[in-house]
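User: You have something folded?
Assistant:
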Amino acid sequence: MAWKIAGYDLDSINDMTPSSSKIIGKYKYYPEGYVDVLRSPTTQYTPVRNKSLLMTTFFVWSYVRTSTTGYFKSSKKFIVKVPVHIRHWNQEYKIFGHSLWDKIGTATKANSNPNTHYRIGTGDRGAYNKAVLNNTFFDYNDYCNSAQGGQGSIIKLDDIWYWIPITADRGGTTILKHKFNFSSSELYYSNVLGTAITNDIALRYWHDNSYQNKQNLMFHEFSHYSHAMKAGRAYWKDVVVSEAENIAYTLTTTKDPYRDGVHPTSGGADQIGLAESWAEFMGAVISTFYYGSGQIFTYTGGFDIENFSPQFTPSMITFADGSQGGWHYGCWIPTGLWWDLWDTNNETNQRTVYGNTVVTDCATYPLPAIYNALAGCVRVTDMRPKIFNLNPNTKCSLTLFNAYGYSFKNIINIVYMKLIKKTTITLSLVFALLFISSCGNDNYCIQKSSLRPEGFVLPNLFTALNYKDTFNLNDTLWIKLTIPAKFSANMKSCNLVDNQIEINNDMLVYRSDSVYHNIDDIQNGYIILGDIPRILTKQGSDYNSTFGLVLNNPKITFIGDTTTKYWPTTSQYIQLKSWIDKNCTYTDCKNPYESGFYIHTSFQGNKAFLPINIRH
């Protein structure tokens, strides 16, 4: 009976007598059944899908993989009881930090059938953690393959090495040492992150039995992985080193990877802000996808991703006892920004960095589009022109960035290059024309120019290049906008030094049927040639842009703006709202709600609007 005790299967015995084989044959069986894991703290079980299992008596080894329903059947026969183990290994990942395999039950001839369920509870933490991680791995990839997730456009998990140590604390760390082949010298602070340096993602949740809590943590860390794969090795190395350095300097106190938004350097904090806000946002999106809308309210300290309260840096949560630290997602890391750009609720409740509930959450961009914008970005401000370029007619996206305190400092050429391609031919003609301005040769506007509470009044910044008494239907009215780089009013001055500035043109089109439309609202039928100017490039001492309005509606009667409080008692000024505030010597360059300031202007001759007569 030695071969039987040793666990040899029937097919491996070649020298038995016919009578012996007949007797032994009735003991042979193929272990099979289903593997399920408890969704603690509920009493419900869910299949452990696509998971590698091992059955062995140390002489016979059978490796199987469960199906999407958790079903498995061994390809090898056994004639004795055999333990069934859930493995640390899977085709798509490996798990280190504790046991390489954990027993989940024993297969026998009697229980090997499709009605048998091997149920993994919280009693065996090793098996439980392996099962939950496995399911979360595939849940994450399933989301990336979903319509909402972009049907595979977000980089999915593959070949990940996990580290799950037996610890009492809770948290996660995504270093990607294995994926990016980082050397120890590159990640010189990373030993303080509490993970094996040779692995990719550490999950310290050994004593947290909640299935959902584990998933929420992993959705966050897995989102780091997709971000890192999109952003690149150099960016991710800087993020890891910066967070590790923050922990190193607070190792005896808070062990804080984020701190107040200016450590370990302002550049490092910028990178942390983008990385952590993205992971927290995307993790919440996926948790909401699987668990419902309540996932946006799951964090301590009153953190609410939907009604986020952004803070300027440096900023840190202060607890009731006066100590600082803890979660920073409700503080300087702008998690709610991405949610507001993504969600479809579009409420008028987004508070700004000034503490006012004045900004409308009116933008909606697909997650894959926002995700793709991460490429090449190292800070939140790098994302702003890319998001705007997705839909230049959605001014709300710029408003949201401002609300979170991210105004344009150094605008990227992306949007401008798109504009310049369309207007090259027109600009060659326009530049030959003279611009009538009240500014002197020193590029200062007249000192007696009035100063509105919201900003400056600079007349005659708009010029109609081909204005005439009567237009034919579908003629194009060409308009040039010029803003001086240096101006003053009532002895208050501003000096704009960047090569490009961004403006928000609130000019309106008025029709005889008493309908106002913003001139850049192409959904209402107006064709804009060259795009409404958003990015103005300095040419000499001024910023210039040119665009054309196709007069394709016979009911158009004028362009301008008669809707603000200055009409009709004073000359109307078209509002230009700039987010540039660098080197602005006037203390009120920032209005109470947004970075930047208003410039009130008009067409040449101080005209509030230009009448349009269209020949019918």
